Amino acid sequence: GITAAGATALGVGLAACANLQELGVSKNPLGAGFPKMLAGLGASLVILDATETGLDDPGAAAAAASLRRWGALRSLRLGGNPDIGALGVEAVARALLGAPSVKLADLQGANDEGEWPRLKRVLQDG
Fold first, then answer.
1. How do residues 44-84 score in pLDDT, each as one tens digit?
2. Which of 48, 108, 49 is closest to 82 using CA atoms?
3. I need a labelling partner for 1 at 20 to 30 A (CA). Which of 8, 34, 85, 117 fits?
4. Is the pLDDT of residue 15 over 80?
């Protein structure tokens, strides 16, 4: 599978793929390389599937920060990453408020540490 080092290298290559619309890297142990991979993704991204990739709070925060660049994004799948805790979930939830194009954001399996009721209010209240 693609490891953290491979994800970093992939990010460099992705920078040359300005029209890439879909990236599926699920079930690869990207871990700490995920943020560097995201840096290579351009504004045309529509679908990102990083399910079960060993992500943590910094990885989720990197995805959240990237939402501003991805104006065409419709689907963000970060489920199956139990090391994403309340901080990562909240970062994504807050970023979604400024990303109206996103129709699906999957964080199922993240460890929200019992914060889901509060995060739900954040999303509802905007």
1. 999 999 999 999 999 999 999 999 999 999 999 999 999 99
2. 108
3. 85
4. yes
Domains of the chain and any CATH numbers: 4-125 (3.80.10.10)
In this prediction the pTM is 0.94
Q: By C-alpha distance, which of 39, 94, 24, 33 is closest to 58?
A: 33
The sign one gets for the Cα dihedral 105, 109, 112, 116 is positive
Do 115 and 93 form a contact (C-beta atoms < 8 A)? Answer: no
Q: 103, 101, 60, 99: which is closest to 78 by C-alpha?
A: 60
Q: What is the pLDDT of residues 16-41, one digit of tens each?
A: 999 999 999 999 999 999 999 999 99
> What are residue 56's phi and psi, to 5 degrees?
-130, -170
Q: Where are the alpha helices (DSSP H) in the chain?
A: 4-14, 34-38, 57-66, 86-96, 116-125
Query: For position 119, what pLDDT does the model report?
Result: 84
86, 112 contact by CB (below 8 A)? yes
Tell me if 83 sits within 8 A of 56, measured CB to CB. yes
